[in-house]
Amino acid sequence: MEDKLSVVGKSLQRVEALAKACGETLFIDDMPLPECWLGGTVRADVPRGKIRAIRRDPAFDWESVIFADAGDIPGKNAVSMIRDDYPALAPGEISFPTQAVALIAAPDRQTLLKALSSVSLDIEELPPVLDVEEAARGNTVIWGDNNVMDEYRVACGDTEAAFSSADFIIEGTYRTKHQEHAYLETQGIVAIPGENGSIEIIGSMQCPYYVHTALVKGFSCPPEKIVVKQAATGGAFGGKEDYPSILAFHAALLARKSGRAVKMVYDRKEDLLCTTKRHPSIIRIKTGVMKDGSITAADIDILLDGGAFTTMSKVVLSRGILHATGCYFIPAANIRARAVATNTPPNGAFRGFGVPQSAFAIERHMDRIARETGIESLSLREKNLMKNGSSFPFGQVLNEGVSAGLVLEKVLEISGYREKRRQFEEENKHSPSVRKGIGLSLSLHGGGFTGSGEESISGIASVRVTEDRKVEVLVSSVEMGQGASTVLPMIAAETLGLDLSDVRHHTPDTSVVPNSGPTVASRTTMYVGKLVQDACLKLAEKMGEKAGDIQELPSGSFVYGRGKFKNRADGREIPFFDLADLLASHPECIEASVQYSPIPGFSWSEETYTGDAYKAYAWVANVVEVAVDMDTYEIQPLKAYVSAEAGKAISPVLASGQVEGGSLQAFGYAYLEDISMKNGAYTPAHLNQYLIPTSLDAPDFQVDLQEVPFSGGPYGAKGLGELPMDSGAPAIAAAVEHAAGVFPDRIPITGEYLHFLLLGTIPQKRQGGA
Predict the structure, then answer these.
(1) Edge-to-edge, what's the strand order for the sheet holding 558-561?
(2) What pLDDT is attached to residue 554?
(3) How do beta strands 100-106 and 148-156 pair?
(4) What is the rounded CA–CA span in Å between residue 77 and residue 249?
């Protein structure tokens, strides 16, 4: 099979690479939009209160701009996501700082800024709930009946008996803070009003149909009145899954009221201060451990800070609890997970989707067990690794494709972990100022939506032959820097036996492409790619069946292979596009659509939260070397070794790039990226205040790709995009522990936090995460 592949598995140039490298790609703020007005937002500056009045300075000429508030919304004042609890504009109560209260559109930026500064809010402040543990206690209720947005429980085995017989009881609490997406291009949307109340949206986004649904509800209009088109998107990482629905709602409201096109593009300050972040977490773990290192019991409590409204908290929490035990088999476990509301900006989707928080906790806890029992951490991991036949606490049994041991073995081999651990310990005795450390971590990531999520979506993919002799892939999966516009055409080209240049990815447009689902959850290659593959097979079948009816061709049946249709009777061949030309008068024969069909052998109960949570898992192992300056408390990652198994790598160069990029993002999460808060609001207003890793901070990478094909994915591919984000942070923390002799149990490991650890004191709790 491998030898027969001519496109898949080859490191071909990205199809959009040249246009981007030459500056030809037009992002939303580059588009020439004559007579387009600019939109801006009037925001609250308190975490909780009641709006007494929105005051407009009478000295300003309000006839020169368009002003809109909650009273102008024609439909439901809620941005439709998982739950319709997030008002597009504050209806009278303020729930978090920077909450949108009113909107203004103006013909130019100077007028817009003057208008925004001419609005003041009279707010009666109320006592806010800013601390996630205070919110969980429910003494002051700000959301629902008890501030708990969502709660899940998972259990297996007899934990009471297992704890009773354990030789060691090890307990730990692990904390993570917010993380900013820091995408290259900030949030941006253009709304263009049309006839009879129609609206066209063009924007930087991940999920065009999410935006479409939100506007249909918010404007109480038929679906055909809303058209959503993706613009070239300069990065997303989950940050453009939920927030574009909010911004599109705002832009569309202004466009509809003004009758003009309205563009809203955030500058970096507004983007940093106002958009969603990764959920902070507090995770408590208690384990029962035997003298031989076997973990027999676990009690895990997960607490996520959802912010003021739900956005994606429900599914982030779901994935967090399902990955809570990591790559380890624990026969008796009791796991509880809650997302609670606080009067802080809502937190949303972010690469990894709850797994980075859970992975940090379980991996750090493995190191704590090693530290407190004297069992070597590598041996402890090897003792408890999941194997074929192992089960998760929610009941799923993995009978094949368990690659935890494979990636661990490979990363140990390429990194020289055992030897370097001993070597660094010896070198550190003679280097008191700068010490080196090496850390290890593991993780897994379920591909696609949880449980029956893919069945609920029932995604559709289409392909068609165009007049210019190209095969066009029609899906709602977007290109946002990850390579979808290359990988999906690669799958189509391989299936049809064509060159990559013969296939193109149609930019998602809800008036043209079917709903194949959102570009999230590591599902694009694994699930949408499979739909594309099947649609191509169906296309070739339809064309072959019709070929016998074409007068210019010999009668009889045709079989397709390697870019040509072959007549079974006389062996004559006709190239793919030549037959497509002959079928041009039969357009139904040169296009094909396929809808997702459930993969047999999997079942899931949403009621009991048990069963097969994911059809396939990808696996990763990290080893990281760091240098720690014991005088300045600076941490510098030096080398990173990553072994990842995500099925067949459709494009090895893109897969390796995903691994390196995701790992570096995880490293920044671990030691560098720190969001401080004041009175419920974020304080970093530019990237000099919120530091992210640059090329100078990147370690030398060595990436190893293992391939254990999954039969349900195209050519055996599984999901990869989020996996590298999951386990980089605990590897950094373990390396810092090895170098400095302290035990970081929270991230980021800033210089201040490391200083406190070395002093042996607990840093004072500060707002800005759990």
Answers:
(1) 558-561, 564-567, 573-575
(2) 81
(3) unpaired
(4) 10
Q: Contact 33/261 with Cβ under 8 angstroms?
A: yes
CA atoms of 745 and 757, how far apart (whole Å): 10
Residue 553 has pLDDT above 90, yes or no: no
Q: What is the mean pLDDT of the chain?
A: 96
**In 655-738, where do the E strands start and end?**
677-678, 681-682, 700-706
CATH of domain 281-450+607-759: 3.30.365.10
Predicted confidence (pLDDT) at residue 471 exceeds the cutoff of 90:
yes
- Residue with structure tokens 């099925």? 647
Same fold: 2-25+459-595 with 281-450+607-759: yes
CA angle 498, 481, 489 (to 5 degrees): 10
Q: Is residue 641 over pLDDT 70?
A: yes
Burial group, residue 697, by CB count within 10 angstroms (0-12, 13-18, 19+): middle
| Backbone phi and psi for residue 312, each to the nearest 5 degrees, phi listed first | -105, 15
- The pLDDT score that the predictor gives to residue 569 is 86
CA angle 193, 197, 203 (to 5 degrees): 40
Residues facing 643 on adjacent strands = 621, 704
* Span 703-755, pLDDT tens digits: 999 999 999 999 999 999 999 999 999 999 999 999 999 999 999 999 999 99
Distance CA 313, CA 254 (A): 29
- How far apart CA 611 and CA 391 sit, in angstroms, is 10
Sign of CA dihedral 79, 85, 90, 91: positive
Whole-number Cα distances in Å, 756 to 633, 744, 751 = 10, 10, 9
Q: Is 366 helix (H, G, I), strand (E, B) or coil?
A: helix
- The widest CA-to-CA distance across the chain, in whole angstroms, is 87
Q: DSSP labels for 234-295?
A: ---TTTTTSHHHHHHHHHHHHHHHHTS-EEEE--HHHHHHHS--PPPEEEEEEEEE-TTS-E
Among 442, 318, 330, which Cα is nearest to 392's? 330
**Multiple choice CATH, 2-25+459-595, 3.10.580.10, 3.30.565.10, 3.30.365.10, 3.40.50.620:** 3.30.365.10
Tell me the C-alpha to C-alpha distance, in Å, between residue 62 and each of 89, 114, 115, 117, 606: 20, 11, 8, 12, 52
Q: Which residues pair with 619 in a beta bridge?
A: 444, 645
Following DSSP, what letter does each residue of 702-721 receive, concatenated?
Answer: EEEEE----TTSGGGB---T
Domain ranges of the chain: 2-25+459-595, 33-126+187-265, 281-450+607-759
Find out whether the peptide bond into 127 is cis, omega within 30 degrees of 0: no
Contact between residue 90 and residue 44 where contact means Cβ atoms under 8 Å apart: yes
Tell if the pTM clears 0.90, that is, is over it.
yes
Lookup: tokens for 513: 């492409």
Q: What is the CATH number of domain 33-126+187-265?
A: 3.30.365.10
Contact 228, 248 (CB under 8 A): yes
